[in-house]
């Protein structure tokens, strides 16, 4: 009797031979074609008391308008304090799927806006620093463009049913470059503890930030092998699988608490 993987392989070969190649391409090889998260363009200065708006990306990668920033951009003296996760914040993953030995054209992407947390900024000696930050993500709300993939991840891969929460806690202060108060985009490194799939690792996440109206916006990503977090790469019969590493990405909008 043939093994299950052998039967799956035969079925796929038959589908390809019978014109199912288009279906296989649409399901796996096409990928999701979702652009990586990036900082939105800064909102134009508001005039005549009108509120300024900015744009970002939602969980599916589509461009969307974020809630209006205040008419008057926050000044440097008002930056110190506690900042909380605001509307339009997104966290997600990117992985490259494979059909047999063929890689998809683009990454599979899942995202969620179910994020909570705060960051504290202090001022000392004329320098601004992020002295603490802690964020939590509801992993059960991750969604991609394929429900079958989302269902699979509940009990496979990142196993969101067993590990419903992921967290990041800053463990070293982050000095904020002086020109950040002007709205310039600045590069920072976030050193902290990332907990994913029940495993906590110390990581350095490269990020980019900007002050945009009344928002502090931070975008970043971290690529890592699944083995770092004891994640088994999803694999269906050895034919539909993902590569053995993934990328965490985020765009958070912080508002003054």
- Beta-sheet strand percentage? 35-45%
CATH fold assignment? Lipocalin
Taken in chain order, the helices and strands follow as HEEEEEEEEEHEEEEEEEE
Q: How many beta strands in the DSSP annotation?
A: 17
Calculate the mean pLDDT score and round it.
Answer: 82
Low-confidence stretches: 4-28, 46-71
CATH architectural designation:
Beta Barrel
Number of helices: 2
- Provide the domain count: 1
**Structural Rg:** 21 Å
CATH superfamily: Lipid/polyisoprenoid-binding, YceI-like
Sheet of most strands? 8 strands, antiparallel, barrel
Biggest sheet: strand arrangement: 3-8-9-10-12-13-14-17
| DSSP helix fraction | 10-25%
Question: End-to-end distance, in Å?
Answer: 65 Å
Structural notes for this entry:
- The chain is mainly β.
- It has a single domain, classed as Lipocalin.
- The protein contains two helices and 17 strands.
- The strands form three sheets. It has an eight-stranded antiparallel β-barrel with strand order 3-8-9-10-12-13-14-17.
- Strand 13 (199-212) and strand 14 form a beta hairpin.
- Residues 4-28 and 46-71 have low confidence and may be disordered.
Q: Secondary-structure blueprint of this entry?
A:
Blueprint: H1 4-29, E1 55-57, E2 63-65, E3 81-85, E4 90-95, E5 97-99, E6 102-103, E7 108-112, E8 115-124, E9 127-138, H2 147-155, E10 165-170, E11 174-176, E12 186-196, E13 199-212, E14 215-225, E15 235-236, E16 240-242, E17 245-256
């Amino acid at each position: 009797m043939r093994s299950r993987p052998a039967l799956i392989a035969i079925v796929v070969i038959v589908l390809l031979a019978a014109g199912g190649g288009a279906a296989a391409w649409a399901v796996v090889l096409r990928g999701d074609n979702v652009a990586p998260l990036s900082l939105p363009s800064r909102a134009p200065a508001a005039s005549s008391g009108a509120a300024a708006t900015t744009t970002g990306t939602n969980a599916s990668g589509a461009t969307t308008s974020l809630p209006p920033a205040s008419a008057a951009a926050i000044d440097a003296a008002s930056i110190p304090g506690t900042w909380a996760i605001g509307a339009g914040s997104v966290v997600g993953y990117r992985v490259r799927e494979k059909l047999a030995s063929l890689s998809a054209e683009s990454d599979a992407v899942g995202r969620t806006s179910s994020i909570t947390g705060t960051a504290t900024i202090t001022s000392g000696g004329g320098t601004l620093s992020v002295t603490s930050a802690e964020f939590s993500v509801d992993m059960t709300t991750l969604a991609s463009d394929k429900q079958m993939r989302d269902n699979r991840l509940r009990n496979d891969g990142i196993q969101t049913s067993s590990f419903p929460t992921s967290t990041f806690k800053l463990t070293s202060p982050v000095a904020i470059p002086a020109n950040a108060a002007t709205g310039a985009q600045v590069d920072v490194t976030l050193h902290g503890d990332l907990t994913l799939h029940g495993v906590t690792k110390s990581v350095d996440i490269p990020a980019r930030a900007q002050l945009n109206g009344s928002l502090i916006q931070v975008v970043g990503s971290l690529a890592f092998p699944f083995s770092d977090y004891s994640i088994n790469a999803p694999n269906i019969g050895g034919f539909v699988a993902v590569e053995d590493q993934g990328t965490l990405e985020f765009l958070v909008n912080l508002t003054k608490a």
